[in-house]
Amino acid sequence: MTQTAPPQLTTPQTTVRSRTFSQLFSATRRGARLARLLGVGQLCSWDVHPTLTERGEVVIAELASNAVLHGHVRGRCFRLTLVLDPASKVLRVEVSDARGDLYPQIATGTVQDGAVPQGGRGLLLVQALADHWDCIPFPPSGKTVRAVLSTPGGLVPPGGPEPSGAGRAVTNG
């Protein structure tokens, strides 16, 4: 008599896919503003936790502004890419521009004679809000500044995702 082994019970494996948003914008102040507005709108449509959305908004605004102010090459755009990875509970914000010869540096100026130096403080905000940020080459001649943001509470608000459109409203400002 031949005895057969009982069937193996396995747990179904579900893969949680990363969500990606990527868009080119004109390297103008208007393009930087539009990148911020569309980026926040995308995070809201993904039902991202409001705290992470707010941090993401500031990081998007600062990196887009830097791309316009310091990475501008006439006739070239900049790219905003958002990658939401539910498995690792992180949001990656990437801004690519055409100036690979100018890498970002955190301002180190001090107050002298009561005057606070102008500019150069945006990366301090990015450094404070992001878990990690860096800059890598973007072939053929550009660069990509990346910031990784996570939230200890997860990506969606407590109680599950809000109905689509019920998150933070995108305003003109």
Percentage of β-strand residues: 15-25%
The number of helices is 3
Question: What overall geometry do the principal axes of the alpha carbons give?
Answer: elongated
CATH architecture of the domain at 19-103 and 121-150: 2-Layer Sandwich
Which stretches of 5+ consecutive residues score pLDDT under 50? Answer: 161-173
User: Could you name the CATH class of the domain at 19-103 and 121-150?
Assistant: Alpha Beta
Stated plainly, the CATH topology of the domain at 19-103 and 121-150 is called Heat Shock Protein 90
Helix amount, in percent? 25-40%
Number of strands: 5
User: What's the pLDDT, averaged over the residues?
Assistant: 82
Order of helices and strands: EHHEEHEE
CATH superfamily (homologous) name of the domain at 19-103 and 121-150: Histidine kinase-like ATPase, C-terminal domain
What distance separates the N and C termini? Answer: 79 Å
Structural class estimated from helices and strands: alpha+beta
Biggest sheet descriptor: 5 strands, antiparallel
- Nearest-angstrom radius of gyration? 21 Å
Structure description:
Helix content is 27%, strand content 24%. By secondary structure, the protein is α+β, with helices and mostly antiparallel strands. It has a domain at 19-103 and 121-150: Histidine kinase-like ATPase, C-terminal domain (Heat Shock Protein 90). Strands 1-2-3-5-4 form a 5-stranded antiparallel β-sheet. A hairpin with a 4-residue loop joins strand 2 (77-85) and strand 3. The longest helix has 21 residues, at 50-70.
